[in-house]
Amino acid sequence: MAYYRKTNRAAKPARKEPVNTGSPVLNRSAAESPRDKRPAEGRIKPSRTADKAGTGKGSGFSSSGKADVATRFRTWLSGESAKIAPLPLKKKLQYIADYYWLWILGMVTVVSLSGYIVYRAFFTVKDYWFYAIFANTMEDAGNHSRIWEDFVDYAGYDTSQKNVVFNAASYFDPTVVSGTANSYFQAFVAVAEAGDLDIVTMGRKSLEAVGSSGRLLDLRLDSCREICSRYADRLIYCEPVDESYSDEPVPIGIDISDSRLVTRYHVYSSDCALGISSHTQRLDEAERFLDFLFEAPE
């Protein structure tokens, strides 16, 4: 015989039917319960993206959004105009200066910068007749200096077509590691490797250090044969860092210590040399400058 244990478990109350309270929230059916995340039949689920028909609904900046911004701007502008219309001219200007000076400053800056960029892009001279660096000098040997004017006249350059650059504001010591870490040396390397630089002048030891790194033209090349023969007694040699290039001293410069660069223009007091950039595209102009230093009439 089976015995069953009597329990005192209370019976579950009967489920009450929802009472119509007149509230649309409380009278929703089970299908419309907030727990049921599926949209009820016939209900349109809102889209978070803009429709392809171009209605402007959804995310993104649509054409209707642009129109709305334009409408708001016109409304704001008409409101501001109406606000200052009855004021005298001085008060109007004072109002604009007080509330909109930052906007005006920003607009002037943008217009000025845009004008400068357009001018540099379309109206400035970009190419060079000749580009020289006179390193480590305190004398005036830059653009429009006496030596610059004399050389431009001697060569017959038209500076309205191309530039002639004399850079006399470059200071670095290539004989020590710290001397090649400053901004002047980095600018020198950038100009040289870009193919803009034609010649550089500096002390003899400094020129040998620059030449050993391969940044100066090897005057033994066929293109330099005439220069090498004309200035054979002035050649300056260096030991290349890259021994695979040459295991012998390489001629990389010309001694110009007794040229007019020293005797007339006093760019250096003594002991200076000239090297031709290994990336130069105007070797003839470098030779012309050598002619100017040694052979031009006083």
Structure report:
The chain is of the alpha/beta class and 298 residues long. Among the domains are: 87-124; 128-171 and 187-294, D-Maltodextrin-Binding Protein, domain 2 (3-Layer(aba) Sandwich), CATH 3.40.190. Helices cover 36% and strands 11% of the residues. It has 8 helices and 6 strands, in the order H-H-E-H-E-H-E-H-H-E-E-H-E-H. It has a 6-stranded mixed β-sheet. Helix 3 links the parallel strand 1 and strand 2. The longest helix is centred in the middle third of the chain and has 34 residues, at 89-122.
Write the topology of this structure.
Blueprint lengths: L62 H22 L4 H34 L5 E8 L10 H10 L7 E8 L12 H11 L5 E4 L1 H9 L12 H6 L4 E4 L11 E6 L4 H4 L9 E4 L6 H12 L4
Parallel strand pairs: 1-2, 1-3
Antiparallel strand pairs: 3-6, 4-5, 5-6
Report the total helices.
8
Question: Largest beta sheet: what is the strand line-up?
Answer: 2-1-3-6-5-4
Computed Rg: 41 Å
Bin the helical content. Answer: 25-40%
If you average the pLDDT, what whole number results? 82
The span between the termini is 142 Å
Which outline best applies? elongated
Specify the biggest β-sheet: 6 strands, mixed
Corresponding CATH architecture of the domain at 128-171 and 187-294: 3-Layer(aba) Sandwich
The CATH topology label of the domain at 128-171 and 187-294 is D-Maltodextrin-Binding Protein, domain 2
Q: Could you list the spans in which at least 5 consecutive residues all have pLDDT below 50?
A: 1-7, 29-33, 42-59
**Broad CATH class of the domain at 128-171 and 187-294:** Alpha Beta
User: Structural class of the helices, strands and pairings?
Assistant: alpha/beta
Proportion of beta-strand residues: 5-15%
Order of helices and strands: HHEHEHEHHEEHEH
How many beta strands in the DSSP annotation?
6
